[in-house]
Structures are given as C-alpha cells and as structure tokens.
Amino acid sequence: MNLISIENLSKTVNDNPLFQNVTMGIDDGEKIGFIGPNGAGKSTLLHILAGFIEADIGNISKNNNLRISMLEQTPVIPKGITVKDFLYKGETPVIKLIAEYHECLEDYNHPEVDDHDPVGAGRDPGLHGRAGSLLPTSLPLLDKLTEKMDKENGWEIENNYLSFLSELKLDNPDQIMDDLSGGMKKKAALARALASKPNLLILDEPTNHLDIEIIEWLEKYLGNANFSFIMITHDRYFLDSVCTGIMELEKGRIYKYPGNYSTFLERREIRLSTEQNEQARIKSILRRELEWLSRGPKARASKDKKRKMRIEDLMDKKVQKEQENSEFSSSNRRLGKKILELTNIEKSYNNARVVSPFSYKFKKGERIGIIGPNGSGKTTFLNIISGRISSDSGKIEKGLNTEFGYYDQLSGHLNEAADKNFTVLEYIKETAEQITLEDGKVASAAKFLEMFNFPSKTHRIPLTKLSGGEKRRLYLIKILITNPNFLILDEPTNDLDLDTMRRLEDYVLSFSGTIIVVSHDRAFLDRTTDFLFVFDGKGGIKGFTGNYSEYREFTQIRRDLAYKVSTSGKNGKTEPRSSRDVACNVSVIPQKRKLTYKEKQEFSNLEAEIDRLETEKIELEALFSNTGINPFEMEKNNRKYKIVTENIEIKITRWEELAELSD
Questions:
Q1: CA 656 to CA 605: how far, in whole Å?
Q2: Is 464 helix (H, G, I), strand (E, B) or coil?
Q3: DSSP string of 128-172?
Q4: List of residues 6+ apart from 194 with CB closer than 8 A
Q5: For residue 88, what is the DSSP state?
Q6: For residues 458 and 515, what is the distance between their CA atoms, to the nearest angstrom?
Q7: Are 374 and 354 within 8 A, CB to CB?
C-alpha cells in the first residue's frame, strides 16, 4: 500500500535549485535511509513530505489513512516549558487535538474573573472563559473534543509519551526544558515523535547528540517496527542495520536503491560505472556530430533539422562529472617531547562529581575515543584539558609546542561570525589569508575553500544561508587551517554528509599529532581510534585498548562470564568458603567431587563445539586475504573473528575444568 507519493516536485531556495521534477513514493513497511551531500535539499524535501513547507511545483498524493510524525534536526523548544508540556507543542493533528482539549479543559475548570463582575454574580462560573468573557459553547466544545480524543486515542498518546521518556531515561517530566542538555532535549523530541504511533515516521538526523546506548536502543526499536520511516542520518551502522532501502539525493535527482547501506554501496558503484560508460559513448557521438557541423554552411544546409536537434538533445543529456573529492590536508606543527600531562585533575558541579581524580600522559600519534552517557562529563573533560575551564584540583602541564585545534559541538565561533553577517570567504580570511598545505605548498583562502567543496560561487554567500552541514564543514576547515598538532573533536560527525565524514576519517588516520574524539558514531570511532576513555557517568574514567566494537565485544563477553560465575554456584560447580573460613583466613582444600550428569553431557559436547569454532576461525582468516570484499563486510568479519576467538578460549578453559574433574 502506497502511503505517500510525489510527482514532478521542484524546489528552489535562495535562488538555488535544490531538486527538479522529482518523482518517488513510500510504501507501507518501507524503511528508507536518505543520504546526499550537505545543502542538497534533504531536509527541505522531508519538510515538504511532512507538510511544513510547500514545493514550488509538483503534486503530492497521500493515503487517507496516513499518519505522519516528524523528528526535526533542531526541534523548536519554547522558553520555560516543562518536558511534559513539550508534548503539546507538536505539529501532528492528534497532538494539536490533545493541546486544544487541555486548553479547553483549563478554560472550563479555571475561568478568569471579569473586572466588572468580580464575583460573577448571576453567571455560571463553568461558562466563564479567559478575561471573564462568557463562553456558552465551552461545555459543548469540551464534549466534542472529548469525543475526538476517544476516536483518535488521544489518551493513549499521552501515556505513550511518558513511557518513551522513561525508556530514554528522562525520568522527570516536570523538569524545565531550558535546563536540559542538547542530548536530553533530543530525547524529548524523539519521545514526542514516537508517541503518536505514526505509520510514516520522518527522522532528520535522529542520532545527533544522543549517546551510543540510546542510539542502539533506537536502532533496535526501528529494526523491529512495523511502520514505515524515512530517515536522514550519517550513521553507517544504523543505515546498514535497519534500512530496507536507501534513497540518494544527488545534483537535484533522486536515486532509490533496495537493500541496506552495504547493498547501496555496491549498486551505486554499478550506477556510476554505467554513467561513465554512457558519458564516453555520448562524447564519441558528439565528436562525430560536431565534426559534421564544422564542414560549413553548405554541408549543414543539405542535412535535415532532426540531426541538429539530436545534437542539442545529446548536449542536454551529457552526464556531469563526479565532483572530485579533495582530501582534508593541512600542515601541522611538530610536537615536543612533552605534549600534555594530567595529574589528579578533578571537577564537580553542585556537589556532583563529574571527573574523579584522573592522571594521564598523552603521547604523539595517539588516537583516543571518548564514550559515555549524556551528561557524564565528556565535554567538561575536553574543556579542562584545553584550558577553557579550570579543574577544581590537580595539575595540567602543556608542552611548549602543543597547539590545540578544538572542534566543539556548538560551533560557537561560527555563530558569532554569522551574527556579524560574514560571508564564507570572510570567515576563513579572518583566520588566514594563505594556508600552508601538508606538502609545503601555499594556497589562498579562496583556493583552500575550493579544495573542500566550497566552489567560488559560494564564497560570497552569508553564513546564515548555509545548511547545518555546510556550517559544520566550514567550521572544521577553520580549525584545520590553524595547523594544530593536538586535535580535539567533540561530536565532529553531527550534520556532516557521508562524503565529508569519510574524508575526515582519512584526515584523522593520516594526522601525525595527537587526537581525542568524542563521538556517538560507532563506525567513525571504529575507523579512527585505537584506545578509549570510558566515562561511567559518576566521574570515573577507565581506559580500554581497542576501538568501540572491540569494547562492546569485550563487555558482552565479560557479562557472559559473570553470568556463568553467578549460575555456577547454583549448579554445584563452585564450592564457596564458609564465613568462618573467610574470617579466619584459612585455606580450605575442598574434597574433589565427580562430574554431575549435566556436566558429563556438557563435557562430551564441548570438544565438538571447539572443533566447529576452530573451523569457523580458519574460514574467517581466509576471508581476510580477499582484498575485494566490501569494507563493511570486512568490519563485520573482524568483529565476528574476535568473538569466535574469545569463545574458543572460554570453551577450552571450561573443557580443562571438566577434564580435571573427570580424571
């Protein structure tokens, strides 16, 4: 069943044609990931689908049973409202109905007193509205709205909202929204979007500002959902896990691919190859036709007009070349022997410990990822080590040659420049007129912008006219041209398109200095980091050698082992010492026992399981030599290999325990 379809849709913003004659549809049950370059018009198209803005031309057809709900990239939050009241500020028809019902109920139960009739003499107080006016229709209107609430299940939506808030760990619905972090606000907006139980959910960058735990919750929820959604996101693991189709907006055209993100990469490569072949064919025909045209007026006059028209059609069909992907590149200062040393730094706010005493010596070439729940102190930690705020105690020693490049998630400096009506070029020139590249060459500010996909036609555009992703990319360029040797990236992937993000990953991998990354993007962390600082939300910071996927596998294995230990005593496998033995610190040598019936069965099966895992390990090792394998499949195999190896060790250890008892 088709839920919504658009036909020949076109939209121009600020004299910039975003898309022309777009035709597409979304069917019941489709789960679509929507990707494309920053500024291509993805968010604009979603707002048109949601009915928030109108297209210039084109038709939109909606199913009579369509129920749309949208999570915007930056939700509008009125000042001073509570988390609970935020529900009533939604734009869906059913939420507007709920808001109208509560307003009518408030007017009916609490009428204001008229200044000319302070006691309301001779009037039914239940009929008074605001400013003391008579509202004889209040009761009939309330009855009508109550009937609509019953029909639209409005009561259920309020309960759904509170339930989703609890799932997302927003446990105080009476809290003022102004006091919440960006991640908490995003959770409230997500809960509101899900509460109305739409059959088409529109999500614009849903993972921005969310911590990884909530992202994985949302990933699981959407993967099991029976409704349709279309979602803009740069989270490649998310796209690969939950999407049944990928929609790409490129140069004003929509391309739709069945399958998840991995399938999209394969099919897109085929499409581009086909387009290149078509381009070569058209060029060959054009060359012959242009040779014919150049023979002179007499030769041209003897030919029919259709041939001339054919040439014009070919010119129109000419496929544009793919924009070359310039790599992020800038020189960076040499690091000294001492880079940055932290000694027992700590920080508290309102008697709550944010950073417990922590010490660390940073080394050249380290790529450290920081993970932890929202509000656990990650940004506070970055602000302390960069000198933006002071620690309560401890010592921070920065090397003489250490130069920070701090890419913060708020882009505050860019917002200030936008308020001053800076253009794109003026914003970069404020930092440097000329930039030294990694190879020692010098580029002008204008040339440097072109290298990062800001062509000359965009240089005089005011910052206020840029999309969110374009602003973030420009802010990143601003940081890189300062030539830092200690790069601090706080949520760098927010709003960036996939192409920019891949090139940022390559930049991080080639960066010779030290890098700290706070990110909720699991794929980005896996590619760019090899050590983690894990924040526990109570001020504690622990280190882990490896990337995010390895950390997740480690924690899962640890949970499995903990479960085995907790259940082993119940099965009689572990003989705990008595309280007396512990108190007296006496070593007790328990009498050797025999295998139980269940343990004998387990022992007989273990050898076959170990053989099977060893075979699987060999097969995975053989795959690693295949250079043509999809990169996402390779990452999946790496994770699987790690799990298989750990399982082999666990089962061999268990086999040895049982073998000892069987002697």
A1: 13
A2: helix
A3: B-GGG-B-TTHHHHHHHHHHHHHHTTHHHHHHHHHHHHHHTT---
A4: 69, 160, 164, 201, 221
A5: G
A6: 31
A7: no
Measured CA to CA in angstroms, residue 189 lies from 48, 351, 534 at distances of 19, 29, 27
| Residue 383 token pair | 């602000």
How does 496-533 read in b/e, with b if 16+ C-beta sit within 10 Å? Answer: bbbbbbbbbbbbbeebebbbbbbbbbbbbbbbbbeebb
Please name the residue that has the structure tokens 């387990």.
602
Distance, in Å, from the CA atom of 381 to the CA atom of 354, rounded to the nearest integer, reads 9
pLDDT tens across 483-541, in order?
Answer: 888 999 998 888 888 888 888 888 888 888 899 999 999 999 999 998 999 998 889 99
Q: Residue 639 corresponds to which tokens in the numbers above?
A: 């994770």
Q: For residues 71 and 191, what is the distance between their CA atoms, to the nearest angstrom? A: 9
Tokens of 182: 């960006």
Residue 198 near residue 92, CB atoms below 8 Å: yes
- Residues 159 and 145: beta-carbon distance below 8 Å: no
293 and 300 in contact (C-beta within 8 Å)? Answer: yes
- The residue among 573, 571, 603, 605 whose CA lies nearest residue 590 is 573
The whole-angstrom separation of Cα 289 and Cα 152 is: 64
In the block, tokens 């910052």 appear at 463
Q: Which CATH superfamily is domain 340-546 in?
A: P-loop containing nucleotide triphosphate hydrolases (3.40.50.300)
C-alpha closest to that of 188 among 276, 76, 279, 106: 76
In sequence order, which ranges of 244-304 are alpha helices (DSSP H)?
261-293, 297-301
Q: Is 200 exposed, middle or buried (0-12, 13-18, 19+ CB in 10 A)?
A: buried
**Annotated domain spans of the chain:** 1-66+199-289, 79-182, 340-546, 552-662
Query: In the numeric block, which tokens belong to residue 314?
Result: 């070919």
At the topology level, CATH places domain 1-66+199-289 in Rossmann fold (3.40.50)
Contact indicator for 334, 485 with CB cutoff of 8 Å: yes
Angle CA 215–554–233, to nearest 5: 20
Buried-state track 245-266, b at ≥16 Cβ within 10 A, e below 16: bbbbbbeeebbebeebbbbbbe
pLDDT along the chain (663 residues), means of 10: 91 85 91 90 92 92 92 89 89 83 75 47 37 52 80 82 91 89 90 92 92 92 93 91 92 88 82 73 67 57 55 53 50 75 92 91 92 89 93 92 86 72 88 76 83 85 85 85 89 85 85 91 91 91 89 81 61 40 34 67 81 82 66 68 80 77 65
Q: What is the pTM of this model?
A: 0.69
Query: What is the residue type of 282?
Result: I
- Residue 451 tokens, joined: 């290298």
